UniProtKB/TrEMBL annotation:
<keyword id="KW-0378">Hydrolase</keyword>
<comment type="similarity">
    <text>Belongs to the carbon-nitrogen hydrolase superfamily. NIT1/NIT2 family.</text>
</comment>
<dbReference type="GO" id="GO:0016811">
    <property type="term" value="F:hydrolase activity, acting on carbon-nitrogen (but not peptide) bonds, in linear amides"/>
</dbReference>
<feature type="domain" description="CN hydrolase">
    <location>
        <begin position="4"/>
        <end position="251"/>
    </location>
</feature>
<dbReference type="InterPro" id="IPR045254">
    <property type="entry name" value="Nit1/2_C-N_Hydrolase"/>
</dbReference>
<protein>
    <submittedName>
        <fullName>Carbon-nitrogen hydrolase family protein</fullName>
    </submittedName>
</protein>
<dbReference type="Pfam" id="PF00795">
    <property type="entry name" value="CN_hydrolase"/>
</dbReference>
<dbReference type="InterPro" id="IPR003010">
    <property type="entry name" value="C-N_Hydrolase"/>
</dbReference>
<dbReference type="InterPro" id="IPR036526">
    <property type="entry name" value="C-N_Hydrolase_sf"/>
</dbReference>
<dbReference type="InterPro" id="IPR001110">
    <property type="entry name" value="UPF0012_CS"/>
</dbReference>
Amino acid sequence: MKEYTVAAVQMNSQPDLDLNLEQAYGFIKEAAGKEATLVALPENFAFLGKLDARLEESEKISVQAEKFLADTAREFGIYLLGGSYPVLSASGKVFNRSTLISPDGSTLASYDKIHLFDVDLEGGESYRESDYVQPGENEPVTYKSEDLGIIGLSVCYDLRFPELYRVLSKNGAELLAVPSAFTRTTGKDHWHPLLRSRAIENTCYVVAPAQTGLHGKSRKTYGHSLVIDPWGSVLADAGEDTGIIYGRCDPKHLEEVRRSIPSLKHRQL
């Protein structure tokens, strides 16, 4: 792992593929101009609408999203985390897939979201992700790069399952990626403490690019994309506006934190 700048893009994606890709391109170009080595997009960056619409348009979305990620990473010579987008599965449902793209446009790693968001919140707010999304295999995904170190992949609701991140850290993760579209209802109370906890308990950097604002007519997301260091300190918080935040991933700081609090070495289970 070398010292490098990571950029987290905060978007307000809509049920409009072309508009979303145009928005993402502008942010990626800006981040690349500020010498970000890794640029991370949020969950559902290419399309954020009703789940049934996402299913119906999944083939078109996935083809264009994958081409966009490869072309854009290659154009700017960056590592690009394609937060997530729908990919049609053999079951007829879609995988909620996150991919890590290299500066030459090739796919380095991909992860299909394991934990699905099936909840009933106060005020009649309800989500049934499993109606349309096929969970990925229960196989945590890490990728090792000389430039980026070891990255552990996850998506949004995975954040509530610390055992996933423990496995990622056991597999050597130094940076945990958590692209999300966290609801405003839950985000205001849970987003910051959950992300800081994952950083602290695994002594890892965390990059969490997020969706923000109103999507379509009713869905509201919390925003507050974060970059967090292994001590649990928030290096950057995007607030509620769309835009980009930056943080430095420093292997020396990572080593110092792990030497100071060697909890990973003290595990008994």
